Amino acid sequence: MTIRHFDRDIEDIKDLLLRMGAMVEDAMQQSIRALLGNDIRIADQVIASDDAIDEMEVQIDQRVIELIAKMQPAAGDLRFVATVMKITPELERIADLALDVCERVIELAKEPMLKPLVHLPRLAEDAQRMVRQSLDAFVRGDAVLAREVIKEDDVVDQLTVESFRTLLTYMMENPRNISPAIRLTFIGKYFERMADHATNICEMVVYLVEGRMIKHTNADHP
Hey, is 74 helix, strand or coil? Predict the structure, then answer.
């Protein structure tokens, strides 16, 4: 009976984390819509939604602490608890970065428009896919997918560099472009950091599945 109750608690925590993940994915998606559509209304909605995500993080933390206090988890279950406690702050930071994107969008609405964005939409799309796949890897307990996502981080890093170079040329062409280009540079960095957090989530998925910490190691080798 106790074991079944413990399993139910773990499933409840997993469900909460997935609900939080869905909220974060939505915030990220809406921040991209706000950026590409220069939509202040959507940006304001994302900013307003951040408190609910923060509250969800606190709720998950409380449930995990209660679970540890009640039980003495076996090794596999303890890995799950440790993984959840690591993943929830990563999700919360991704949501914060989506909020940061929207704050820059609101500022950009007051600036002269730049040329069509070349690299930022691709950068945003890649970062969003990494976040989604990192959560898929967690749900499925898929260390192979987690390692694939980790490899994608290098692509996002390169796109960030290319985006910065493009924006730098805009700044050199016309001093009026400097202010909006700097804000777009910040946005590019925000998406790069979202991808970094997705990478951190995947490292914890590998730990959950394999019991191995691969942070600061070559994740390609078992």
Answer: coil
Q: Give the Cα separation of 94 and 190 in Å (integer).
A: 9
Distance, in Å, from the CA atom of 159 to the CA atom of 137, rounded to the nearest integer, reads 24
Which residue bears the tokens 């109750």?
5
CB-neighbour burial class of residue 9 (10 A; exposed 0-12, middle 13-18, buried 19+):
middle
Residue 142's region, left for phi above 0, alpha for psi from -120 to 50, else beta, is beta
What's the predicted TM-score (pTM) here? 0.89
In the prediction, which pLDDT does 203 show? Answer: 95
Q: Do 41 and 151 form a contact (C-beta atoms < 8 A)? A: no
Residue pLDDT, tens place only, 11-39: 899 999 999 999 999 999 999 999 999 89
Other residues' Cβ atoms within 10 Å of the Cβ of residue 62:
10
Q: 119 φ, ψ to 5°?
A: -95, -25
Who's near 107: CB < 8 A, 6+ residues apart?
183
Torsion of CA 108, 109, 112, 118, to 10 degrees: 60
Three-class secondary structure of residue 174 per DSSP: coil
Round the CA-based radius of gyration of the chain to a whole number and report it.
19
What domains are there in the chain, each with its CATH number?
2-210 (1.20.58.220)
